[in-house]
Structures are given as structure tokens and as C-alpha cells.
Write a structure and sequence with these properties.
alpha/beta, Rossmann fold, 6-stranded parallel beta sheet, 5-stranded parallel beta sheet, about 35% helix, globular, P-loop_NTPase, DUF1611 domain-containing protein, DgcN-like_C, DgcN-like
Length: about 325
């Protein structure tokens, strides 16, 4: 799936930045492709991009309207239909990471037919996958795991792959969600794969490779999430990670949107993930801890990360604020 041109990011009426993680991810990791943003009047989010009408965006070089928000359940909201139709009529393609296919909405399907514009359903698997084989593959794999959803697993994987490559190590970011796929240009929308085939899809995502090559795999869900533990487990078994990276958002105490579910202690989370991962790779180990410190004062960040590092004897970093250099050095030293 190759999505053409620059993007106009659709934000709808989103008010919580967590709902716009697709848009934020594209701005942070593919800024050269982001021409502007389009918002409904009551939207509470600003990406810092120009607010462009659809015709203006097309004239500015944008070719595709990307739905930059991912509401719970992945449905296309009724109030989005008219703007999406208008974008198609203005000559823009539309790309969506929703579970619902764009053409399932009759007005959108008709507008696309009439304009000749393309519809891209990024969250729809483009192929059929086999069930997981459990076969040991050549090469090395690093999987991001989390205390919760939306804690920075994608940002962590992107930062690690970037910093490993900069250090001369062989590394490839492997996308498992719609935002990562839009950034990388390829990947598997793992949460849209039928559950029996999730492990097989993960095997396809990280095939045999050179013995010193690392696939840095974007994680999904969390083993401690009451709704999304299943996708996390299937991805883990198919990935067969040699290393896991624990990801967490500082200040978060319970599963987002599930106040009755407290987040696990780091030690419990690490050991549970290692225990589950040993089914397909008995030699797996935790290589580091990634903390999204966005809510912390800048002057408290270093001490916070250092305290966690001292407790576990592992590199602890913020993928945005500090980068993954400490982890890369640890990997180069401990995995021979």
C-alpha cells in the first residue's frame, strides 16, 4: 500500500491528544509529509500545522486526507461523512486507520467513484496469513511491551531503530498499527488480523534475516489491558523476541479508560511478559525501560529515569526527550 503525496491531517472534533495519536505520530516522525490540518469548530487539538480548507490543501501539494484520530472502537463518526465527501470532491484521496472501511459508508463510496480519488483502508490486512508455526527464525527481534495502551510503544520502537542505525547496527522498524504503517510505508495492522492468525502475521512481519540484524517491532495493547491483552499476546508469540522493552507513561496509575484496573508494578509487568514470551523464545530477556515523561517537569526527568534504571539495572530512557542511545549501547555490549 503506497499512499501518495503529502497529507492533510483530519482531526474532527477530537479533544484528547490520546485520540489523535495518529496525527501526532505523523507530525513527529514524518513532518515532511504533513501539509496542514483540518478541524471541526469544536476541536480542542492543534498540531501547530496550518488550518487548510480542502481546496487550499490540494493547491499546497496535499494529495491525501489522512484520518488522524483513532476513537475507541475504530468507527467512522457520522459527523465526519460530509467533510470526507467534500475532501473527495476537492480531489483529495482519503486514508483511514479505522476498523470500518471507508467504502462501507455509501456517501463516501459514491463520492470516491465520482471524483476518481482513491480510498486507503490502512487498518485492513492486505493479505491472508497462516497460523503461527513457532519456527525459530534467523536474525534478532526486539518487541515493545507496555503497562497500558498509548504509553509510547511506537515512539520507542522508532527511536530505537533510528538510533541503532545511526550507531552502525542493522535495524528495521516493523510497524504493527496504522500510524506506524503510514510512517514506514509498510507493516501489518495486527489488531485487525483474525485472532487465530495474529502470531502467523507477526512471523510474516519479521522474517528470517541476517544473524546480526534487529527487527524493532512496534507493540500493541498490553497483557494487563482488559480489552487488548489478546493482541499483545499473539504479537508476542509470533515475534519470538530476543529482547523486550517495557514502555510506560509517567504519572499513569490505571488503564486508560478503565479506572477499576490499576497498572501493574514494573517488576510484575516485566516478569509476566517474559513468562509469556518464553513459550516461543526461552532465551528472551528485558533489555530496557522506556518512559514517556511528558507530564513531568523537565528538571525532574533525569532523576526519575535514573531511579528506575538503578532499581532494575537496565537503561531507562525517554524516546523523545533523551533518545535511545543508552539502550543502543547496552544492546551492543550485551548481545553478541
Amino acid at each position: 500500500m503506497i499512499i501518495p503525496g503529502k497529507y492533510l491531517l483530519f482531526l474532527g472534533a477530537a479533544r484528547d491528544p490520546l485520540d489523535a495519536k495518529t496525527a501526532y505520530g505523523l507530525v513527529d516522525w514524518a513532518p515532511e509529509r504533513c501539509a496542514g490540518q483540518w478541524r471541526l469548530p469544536d476541536c480542542g487539538i492543534d498540531l501547530g500545522l496550518p488550518d487548510l480548507a480542502f481546496g487550499q490543501a490540494h493547491a499546497a501539494g496535499a494529495e491525501t486526507l489522512v484520518i488522524g484520530i483513532t476513537p475507541f472502537g475504530g468507527a467512522i463518526a457520522p459527523e465526519w461523512v460530509a467533510p470526507i465527501v467534500a475532501a473527495l470532491e476537492a480531489g483529495l484521496n482519503v486514508a483511514s486507520g479505522m476498523h470500518a472501511r471507508l467504502e462501507s459508508v455509501p456517501e463516501i463510496a459514491e463520492a470516491a467513484r465520482a471524483s476518481g480519488a482513491a480510498l486507503f483502508n490502512v487498518r485492513t490486512p492486505g493479505t491472508r496469513y497462516a497460523v503461527g508455526s513457532g519456527r525459530k527464525r534467523t536474525g534478532r527481534r526486539m518487541l515493545m511491551v507496555g503497562t497500558d495502551c498509548a504509553v509510547g510503544k511506537k515512539y520507542t520502537a522508532l527511536a530505537i531503530a533510528r538510533d541503532m542505525s545511526a550507531a552502525g547496527l542493522k535495524a528495521t522498524f516493523r510497524a504493527t498499527g496504522q500510524t506506524g504503517i503510514l510512517i514506514a510505508g509498510q507493516g501489518v495492522p495486527i489488531d485487525a488480523v483474525v485472532s487465530d492468525f495474529v502470531a502467523g502475521a507477526a512471523e510474516t512481519l519479521s522474517p528470517d534475516n541476517e544473524t546480526d540484524h534487529w527487527d524493532v517491532i512496534e507493540g500493541q495493547g498490553s497483557l494487563f489491558h482488559p480489552a487488548y491483552a489478546g493482541v499483545a499476546l499473539g504479537l508476542m508469540h509470533g515475534s519470538q523476541p530476543d529482547a523486550i522493552i517495557l514502555c510506560h507513561a509517567a504519572g499513569r496509575t490505571h488503564v486508560d479508560g478503565y479506572p477499576d484496573f490499576a497498572l501493574p508494578d514494573f517488576a510484575e509487568c516485566i516478569e509476566t511478559n517474559l513468562g509469556m514470551a518464553r513459550l516461543t523464545n526461552p532465551m528472551v530477556r528485558c533489555a530496557g525501560i522506556s518512559i514517556n515523561t511528558r507530564v513531568l517537569p523537565a528538571e525532574a526527568r533525569v532523576a526519575h529515569l535514573q531511579a528506575i534504571s538503578d532499581r532494575f539495572g537496565l537503561p531507562c530512557f525517554d524516546p523523545v526527550a533523551t533518545g535511545a542511545g543508552a539502550l543502543v549501547a547496552h544492546i551492543a555490549k550485551t548481545f553478541d
